[in-house]
Amino acid sequence: MPALPLDDAGPYVAAAYLVFLALILIYVAIMASKLARIARELGELTQILDRREQRAETDAPDEAEAVPR
Amino acid sequence: MFARGLKSLSIASVILIVGAFALVFYYAPNDADQGFIQKIFYLHVPLAVVALCGFVAGGVFGIRYLRSGDRAHDLRSYVAIHLSLVLAVGALITGSIWAKAAWGHWWVWEEPTLVSFLIVFLLYACYQPLRFSIEDPERQARSAAVFSIVAGAFVPLNFLAVRLAESFSHPRVLTATGGSMPGEMRLTFMVSLLAMAVLFTTLWKYELASKQASMQLRALKRRLADDDDPWIPTRRTAAPQQL
């Protein structure tokens, strides 16, 4: 198997290492999108909690009136 | 649970990968036979070896899941196989690039090493569709574990069969005598292999931690959802949904 001259072999070697870099970057990008989804879900959870707290505040006076004196 | 040691692993991965690439291009001599194109070997072989080890690790976690019923092992097995598939894609592409430069062809069907790796890759490519096709989480985990064990046992058998077969042109790297690599090349290869193994472990733990966080969030959302909130359905997916 004759060795390719450096000028000819260089692009192939560069391509192989770029493929590896691209794979890692794509993987990290996918993980970043998943992280963004987790952040969005955290926001939704905060909204659910806020709604609960608001409801608890509005319900509280009614419950106070219902208490027999 | 899964994020422990992730920071130090990430730092170790970066140091090892940068160190390995520096050794490849500044320390290891050019191969007398192949010349500069042989530098692909330091990337291609560790990718293939770590991917195959990841597939076997998936089978080992499958066994541990069946023995204990602990869903964390199912998740570990799923992520190991998923990540190994990514590395296997890398091994196939870098191998094809090397083959084009060295042999003049992107793929040689007569070469048992190439075809056997492709068979292993295609076998594991069925893993995700298999999981996705089963809706019941318990059955999904059990079937996936059985698949991972059978396929994991196939990997070393396949490796041995290829070693026994007559190779037409693919170089042999992992031999009992350590191959024909001189000291500098062997050191560079070992560092590259270690770097790839540590990178795999880091990404594996990274994805495990991410999946666990998603699961906990979903579980919390379900617990918090009441009549006024929209019902949060369990999305059908190939990935494990709960621990």
Largest interface by Cβ-Cβ < 8 Å: A-B, 32 and 42 residues
Largest sheet of chain A: none
Q: Which structural class do you get from the secondary structure elements of chain A?
A: mainly alpha
Biggest sheet statistics of chain B: none
Q: How many strands of chain A?
A: 0
Order of helices and strands of chain A: H
Structural class from helices and strands of chain B?
mainly alpha
Count of discrete alpha- or pi-helical segments spanning 4 or more residues of chain B: 7
Helical fraction of chain A equals: over 70%
Radius of gyration of chain A: 30 Å
Strand content of chain A: under 5%
Which ranges of chain A are low-confidence, i.e. pLDDT below 50, for 5 or more consecutive residues? none
Given the C-alpha coordinates, what overall shape of chain B results?
globular
Share in β-strands of chain B: under 5%
Mean pLDDT of chain A: 83
Overall geometry of chain A comes to rod-shaped
Oligomer: heterodimer
**Integer count of domains of chain B:** 1
- Uncertain segments of chain B are none
> What is the residue-averaged pLDDT of chain B?
87
State the end-to-end distance of chain A: 100 Å
List the topology elements:
The complex is a heterodimer of chains A (69) and B (243).
Chain A lengths: L5 H61 L3
Chain B lengths: L5 H22 L13 H28 L2 H33 L8 H14 L1 H7 L3 H28 L18 H42 L19
Helix pairs in contact in B: 1-7, 2-3, 2-6, 2-7, 3-4, 3-6, 3-7, 4-6, 5-6
Search tags:
heterodimer, A: 69 residues, mainly alpha, 1 helix, 88% helix, rod-shaped, B: 243 residues, 7 helices, 72% helix, 0% strand, globular
Summarize this entry quickly.
The complex is a heterodimer of chains A (69) and B (243). With 69 residues, chain A is mainly alpha-helical. Chain A has 1 helix and no strands.
Model description:
The complex is a heterodimer of chains A (69) and B (243). Chain A is an all-alpha fold. Chain A is built from one helix and no strands. The termini of chain A are far apart. The model of chain A has no long low-confidence stretch (mean pLDDT 83). Chain B has one domain (18-30, 41-222). Chain B contains seven helices and no strands. In chain B, helix 3 packs antiparallel against helix 4 and helix 3 runs parallel beside helix 6. The mean pLDDT of chain B is 87. The chains are: A mainly alpha (69), B mainly alpha (243). The A-B interface holds A 1, 3-6, 8-10, 12-13, 15-17, 19-20, 23-24, 27, 31, 34-35, 37-38, 41-42, 44-45, 48-49, 51-52, 55 and B 21, 30-37, 39-40, 43-44, 47, 86, 89-90, 93-94, 97-98, 100-103, 169, 199, 203, 206-207, 210, 213-214, 217-218, 220-221, 224-226, 228-229.
